[in-house]
Amino acid sequence: MRGTLIVLEGTDGSGKATQAGLLLRGLEARGISCREIDFPRYGNPFAEPANLYLHGALGGAPGDVNACAASIMFAIDRFASYQEDWGGFYESGGVVVANRYTTSNAVHQASKLPEGERRDFLDWLFDLEYRRLGLPEPDIVLYLDMPT
């Protein structure tokens, strides 16, 4: 029995963690088995390439690392977290609330590309994460559209 994956997306400081906490407390109050995941998983060795990328070790400008290479770094962290941490819970029917997921990769990396290349990139990314790596697709993605 597959679980439910709810993804919260938004800019830094938009309230993703706050909303995730409220949602989790509401689910728990109703007796629903749930847990939170957060990406990237700073401090985990599988997230270290993404951490190095985000902190400029691979170049000082976003375009210094192409969209596919950067996406793979984040995808590895998600794959490892699924295998190590939350996959069994999800597969047994649990509700998982994610603070960022594949959609973050899609938004941040596609923005590096010319408009004419974005569709092919997004097709590649979703194929990589959801089919080739076998990560679950979200049941719903909620975007928190807040002023910066």
Form type = globular
Helix content: 40-55%
Briefly note the structural class of the backbone.
alpha/beta
Strand fraction band? 5-15%
CATH superfamily: P-loop containing nucleotide triphosphate hydrolases
Instruction: Note the gap between the termini.
Output: 39 Å
For the record, the CATH architecture stands as 3-Layer(aba) Sandwich
Short description:
This protein has 148 residues and is an alpha/beta fold. The chain has one domain (4-144): 3-Layer(aba) Sandwich (Rossmann fold).
Question: How does this structure look, described?
Answer:
The chain contains five helices and four strands. It has 148 residues and is an alpha/beta fold. The chain is globular and about 45 Å long. The protein has one domain: Rossmann fold, CATH 3.40.50.300. It has a four-stranded parallel sheet, sandwiched between helices.
Q: Topology, pairings included?
A:
Blueprint: E1 4-10, H1 16-29, E2 34-38, H2 48-54, H3 67-91, E3 95-99, H4 102-110, H5 115-132, E4 140-144
Features:
Rossmann fold, 148 residues, 4-stranded parallel beta sheet
